[in-house]
Amino acid sequence: MFESLSERLGGVFERLRGRGALTEADVRTAMREVRIALLEADVALPVARDFVEKVTEKAIGHEVLRSVTPGQQVVKIVHDALVDMLGPDTAELSIDVTPPAVIMLVGLQGSGKTTTTAKLSRLLKSQGKKVMMASLDVNRPAAQEQLAVLGTQTEVQTLPIVAGQQPVEIARRALNAARLQGYDVLMLDTAGRLHVDQALMDEMKAVADIARPNEILLVVDSLTGQDAVNVATSFSEQVPLTGVILTRMDGDARGGAALSMRAVTGKPIKFAGMGEKLDALEPFHPKRVAGRILGMGDVVSLVEKAAAAIQEEDAEKMAARLAKGQFDMNDLRGQLAQMRRMGGLGALAGMMPGMKKAQAAVDQVGGDKVLIRMDAMITSMTPKERAKPDLINAKRKIRIAKGSGTTVQDVNKLLKMHLEMQTAMKRLKKMGGLKGLMGMLG
Ligand code: GDP
């Protein structure tokens, strides 16, 4: 899967990788190509646009780690954005409830719902769950029989068929049977339609009201590309989906549906259908999929290692300065940069009262804005002021505020934060707690 997208992106990165330095124009050109690659892979337009915007901003604003090339760093940024787009973690089923847990599968006709019901039942059974399946599909002739056949093949119990019963009645009967007979999981395969229509949605809502499912999983055919995304959007507006299962990923060279799904529905892809056989269902691992798309695992881990090494180096330097009780504006700046890189408190910052406040401010305003502003203020100071913040009098404050596009009040806040941290540092030194602190940093 994803072969063509993978190839296209590979080409873009090959051109970037060899370069010693990247200009903003290089990055923008590369990102234009990434955007075309995504659109050709059938990724929904707003999703592609958003993706490229995020990556461009990061790639341009990013300081390059010492031991990697800018091109390598861009690969890592794209990788992280892909993982973000696909969902940060493998999404688990929430079925650890008082049994029976109810899993309802919904979707259009032909999307692979019935097959997937059997596949998932088989998977859960192999994990030691006692599973029962029931088909609520009274529209398609022989749909209930199809599930019964699959039940025999997978050795999973199916609810006996009672001719003439309507979906809500069947759901009620299935729930009672699962309760009485001590099943862990009840799988409900619902009716599909050729198109999304209101009668279908109403039926699903009625069934969901009775069955109170722990999971409502939308089954979509990844081969339908943009259509899959449209279907998912309509369903997610009407029923409280908890996740998506993409079928026919085995034949999907483009991958647009997979890439857009999470951004469009806000729901994670939980499983991927990888073939017609009943064992061809896999949990969806965003990291692995992103890795497969880029095919550059070596570069990603190289950049990760470089980043870790630099953090360690920085921490050691900082520890040495602390040992002397030093903490000037340059140190503060280093800590702020670390917070930005790690998206949270730096190695040291967690222990500093002033820094905790900065983190709270960052959380409140959101994103890097606060950190960028603080960094701008420090940049507007002269080297002397940075080394000796005591020099900063009212006049200098005005100049710093002007230079950084902030206010004197902001400068005061920054100075106060620095002072608090410096005091904490001195206190630590006096208490002889430095060894412990250094241990934590090293
Ligand atoms: P339903 O109408 O949504 O219940 O769809 P079915 O479960 O009857 O599936 C329709 C067809 O798609 C069947 O021939 C399945 O074997 C096939 N199918 C389902 N999932 C996959 C998959 O992940 N990969 C492939 N290649 N075929 C699949």
Automatic annotation (TrEMBL):
It is a peripheral membrane protein. It catalyses: GTP + H2O = GDP + phosphate + H(+). GO terms for cellular component: plasma membrane; signal recognition particle. CDD domains: SRP_G. GTP binds at residues 107-114, 189-193, 247-250. Gene3D superfamilies: P-loop containing nucleotide triphosphate hydrolases (3.40.50.300), Signal recognition particle SRP54, nucleotide-binding domain (1.20.120.140), Signal recognition particle, SRP54 subunit, M-domain (1.10.260.30). One of its GO terms (biological process) is SRP-dependent cotranslational protein targeting to membrane. Part of the signal recognition particle protein translocation system, which is composed of SRP and FtsY. SRP is a ribonucleoprotein composed of Ffh and a 4.5S RNA molecule. Composed of three domains: the N-terminal N domain, which is responsible for interactions with the ribosome, the central G domain, which binds GTP, and the C-terminal M domain, which binds the RNA and the signal sequence of the RNC. This is Signal recognition particle protein. It comes from Sphingomonas leidyi. The lineage of its organism: Bacteria, Pseudomonadati, Pseudomonadota, Alphaproteobacteria, Sphingomonadales.
